[in-house]
Amino acid sequence: xxxxxxxxxxxxxxxxxxxxxxxxxxxxxxxxxxxxxxxxxxxxxxxxxxxxxxxxxxxxxxxxxxxxxxxxxxxxxxxxxxxxxxxxxxxxxxxxxxxxxxxxxxxxxxxxxxxxxxxxxxxxxxxxxxxxxxxxxxxxxxxxxxxxxxxxxxxxxxxxxxxxxxxxxxxxxxxxxxxxxxxxxxxxxxxxxxxxxxxxxxxxxxxxxxxxxxxxxxxxxxxxxxxxxxxxxxxxxxxxxxxxxxxxxxxxxxxxxxxxxxxxxxxxxxxxxxxxxxxxxxxxxxxxxxxxxxxxxxxxxxxxxxxxxxxxxxxxxxxxxxxxxxxxxxxxxxxxxxxxxxxxxxxxxxxxxxxxxxxxxxxxxxxxxxxxxxxxxxxxxxxxxxxxxxxxxxxxxxxxxxxxxxxxxxxxxxxxxxxxxxxxxxxxxxxxxxxxxxxxxxxxxxxxxxxxxxxxxxxxxxxxxxxxxxxxxxxxxxxxxxxxxx
Length: 486
Hints:
The protein is an alpha/beta fold. Helices cover 33% and strands 24% of the residues. Helix 3 runs parallel beside helix 5 (157-169) and helix 10 runs antiparallel to helix 11 (312-319). The longest helix is centred in the middle third of the chain and has 16 residues, at 292-307.
């Protein structure tokens, strides 16, 4: 429990009615689970408005409510008015959990692509070096050896601060955290003190939410704008917006790049399915990871370690032993000589990066077959572009369902095909059933061919009309490969 006055520390509020002299059991923004002695925040979200559920909250016994518009409530209800309940919730959560981020070295990684790989590699590296470490990622949250399922790329402020507090209690030294543009825009990390931040890249994505690319960039940049002077800001200068992220930040500025001069400079020396040979600041490194995009991720990881004053030789030794992240360029081979690559690539840039990597290591006699779809209820503008990129790099394309969610899968596929010319359409089949699409690709493939199954990566479900069905691209492909033996 916490005293309400302490929870409201540094929050600009106006007391409309009731008393501030009370103990609060928990913070809540979900009216379905609120209880007596909780503090309820009426959040204005994309789909719902918490102000519409106040009667239900009061009926549940809650007598302390924070709003961003004044309501006509009984005088015995403590009504607290703020400008933005999203921001107030984040600040209150920091206070409620005693600012756990201040007791860790918390590093935030933001960007369109590479967040999950970079955070996970950092977690694995620091763990192998003997540090008790935390991870907050799209795939899973971890507190040392303990795994906690992830529901969002960046948790809500209550869950976030609770997880950070658990890390502090477990004795963690570091935490590596994905910071999404949605989380930044919704003030989920307000009040959180980062020891450092990393920018991987920014490309076409989430324009259904941010509306314009300039707004998307501005939101990403806000993470760096709020860094304290004793933190570091590490940015990818291969991205044309890399320097933009460093403008106006108070933090120590640093950079990494493969194609231009930077503090941490890399170069790809060799790249194939056996791994990647690269140099980092003149030192050669072999790694099991594949592709130029992973070389960039490794550079970011190395840069973070050096900005945190770790021994360079020890870091390079561990880097060479790290494995690929689940669903990120994860590949397998069939007994008949077909290679299948499962990758989360769900943006035009990510898809092009993966296909470019495959093309660079492709046998001249082999062909690339790409199975790809686009998620429903998400940015529609990238759908035709995704199809066009797939066709540009492949000898055969199969357009299929991703997570259609509440949309008609055929409508999504029609919008993808809309990006193709009549000639391009000749190599693009449309098979809405994802398993059937993968099976067809395997039938069409011959020894030496490479299948790219893109879009879902680590996800172990397919969401259709609000229901999540078991579906794992890697597992299904592996099973179909085994069936070829019979």
